[in-house]
TrEMBL record:
Belongs to the Rab GDI family. This is Rab GDP dissociation inhibitor. GO terms for cellular component: Golgi apparatus; membrane. One of its GO terms (biological process) is vesicle-mediated transport. Keywords: Acetylation, Cytoplasm, Golgi apparatus, GTPase activation, Membrane, Phosphoprotein. It comes from Aldrovandia affinis.
């Protein structure tokens, strides 16, 4: 243990495991420790079901109708992967995909006036959608065609829209779109959590909608993927990557102290020994004096014996409830997976509701989502604080990740990973460089 490392990582959440893998691939000597006996930290998948009951202090044990406890792998943080998103790119480049199997999520839905509708994201779907009237459909289709053709380097494709000056509000106005269409375009396609984006330059939103469409084009049913056996498989995959490149892992390791000298990290003390390091990566729980609370998220895990109504009996889906539909400032999300993903007993479904807390009665806030799921056999409610680092970590060389937000995809997590990487190395994260590093070591076998 009394060794010197380039980087010590504390916590095995997905953010920490990906950074550990990336730093190992870069040739850094990495030591990775976690006080828990399992991978995933806050983003773990809990198995068996008995452990989930214990974690939420539920009385008694799961009823026999829930099947075998070992058949369950329940995510604490519900998220899907965008098929063309940053995390899938990281998985492909690092080849962590060889340890995982994915399934496409069967549908993406949006809530309007108490009912749910499939999200139309292609021109054909737009014309067939019951979400809009006939004239709205044509206008929405024109918007999709405009976005598909939009190229910020070719003024001919812009139709008078300046990507850096025109706001998204201006773009919606140009196509004469009504509030309901604006709601589902901004929240179910561009996946914004609030309406703050409306008055910002439109390029970011256009790129987000392109990402959604490109992800959808890859597999057809929805733009989302999900790993068999739960999200807990992802951190483990990146942990294996780190180990291939010489990273050392220690679970069940109590962390007594982060040793700082002259304002800079020099090591980590565990069980009386100090492992020295030049840089430290950790989740907020290890350095509560270096983070600030930025909000709260409520998550409700619901176990059911039926698919969600009006989803064509899908084994998996996402539902987004845009804020305006329920007089809120933040959207409400529902992620549903099932026995088809090896995360539940035969015939069982797991739906997880999440949103950013706005009042003193978080459970009341998610009522519209809960009503869509009835009847629910068992629910597990958690309200957790969200934390962010108080500084960039450049002085102390202690780099703290952000708590997972309420979104149902990993794009914000990947932004955090790239941000920490830049602060640690002084350079932008470069997907192409990762590809080259991997090929240098594996050679042709990496193909």
């Amino acid at each position: 243990m009394n060794e010197e490392y380039d980087v010590i990582v504390l916590g095995t959440g997905l953010t920490e495991c990906i950074l550990s893998g990336i730093m190992s691939v870069k040739g850094k000597k990495v030591l990775h420790m976690d006080r828990n006996s399992y991978y995933g930290a806050e983003s773990a998948s809990i198995t068996p079901l008995e452990d989930l009951y214990k974690r939420f202090s539920m009385p008694g044990s799961p009823p026999e109708s829930m099947g075998k406890g070992r058949d369950w792998n329940v995510d604490l943080i519900p998220k899907f992967l965008m098929a063309n998103g940053q995390l899938v790119r990281m998985l492909l480049i690092t080849q962590v995909t060889r340890y995982l199997d994915f399934k496409v999520i069967e549908g993406s839905f949006v809530y309007k006036k108490g009912s749910i509708y499939k999200v139309p994201s292609t021109e054909t779907e737009a014309l067939g959608s019951s979400l809009m009237g006939i004239f709205e459909k044509r206008r929405f289709r024109k918007l999709l065609v405009f976005i598909a053709n939009f190229d910020e380097n070719d003024p001919k494709t812009m139709e008078g829209v300046d990507p850096k000056q025109s706001t998204m509000r201006d773009v919606y106005k140009k196509f004469d779109l009504g509030q309901d269409v604006i709601d589902f375009t901004g929240h179910a396609l561009a996946l914004y959590r609030t309406d703050d984006y409306l008055d910002l330059p439109c390029l970011e939103t256009i790129n987000r909608i392109k990402l959604y469409s490109d992800s959808l084009a890859r597999y057809g049913k929805s733009p989302y993927l999900y790993p068999l056996y739960g999200l807990g498989e992802l951190p483990q995959g990146f942990a294996r990557l780190s180990a291939i490149y010489g990273g050392t892992y220690m679970l069940n390791k109590p962390i007594e102290e982060i040793v700082v000298e002259n304002g800079k990290v020099v090591g980590v003390k565990s069980e009386g020994e100090v492992a020295r390091c030049k840089q430290l990566i950790c989740d907020p729980s290890y350095v509560m004096d270096r983070v600030t609370k930025v909000g709260q998220v409520i998550r409700v895990i619901c176990i059911m014996s039926h698919p969600i109504k009006n989803t064509s009996d899908a084994n998996s889906c996402q539902i987004i409830i845009p804020q305006n539909q329920v007089n809120r400032q933040h959207d409400i999300y529902v992620c549903m997976i099932s026995y088809a993903h090896n995360v539940a007993a035969q015939g069982k479904y797991v739906a997880i509701i999440s949103t950013t807390v706005e009042t003193n009665d978080p459970e009341k806030e998610i009522k519209p989502a809960l009503e869509l799921l009835e009847p629910v056999e068992q629910k597990f409610v958690s309200v957790s604080d969200q934390f962010g680092p108080v500084d960039l970590g450049v002085e102390s060389q202690i780099f703290v990740s952000r708590t997972y937000d309420a979104t149902t995809h990993f794009e914000t997590t990947c932004d955090d990973i790239k941000d920490i990487y830049k602060r640690m190395t002084g350079t932008d994260f470069d997907f192409a460089e990762m590809e080259r590093k991997k090929n240098d070591i594996f050679g042709d076998a990496a193909e």
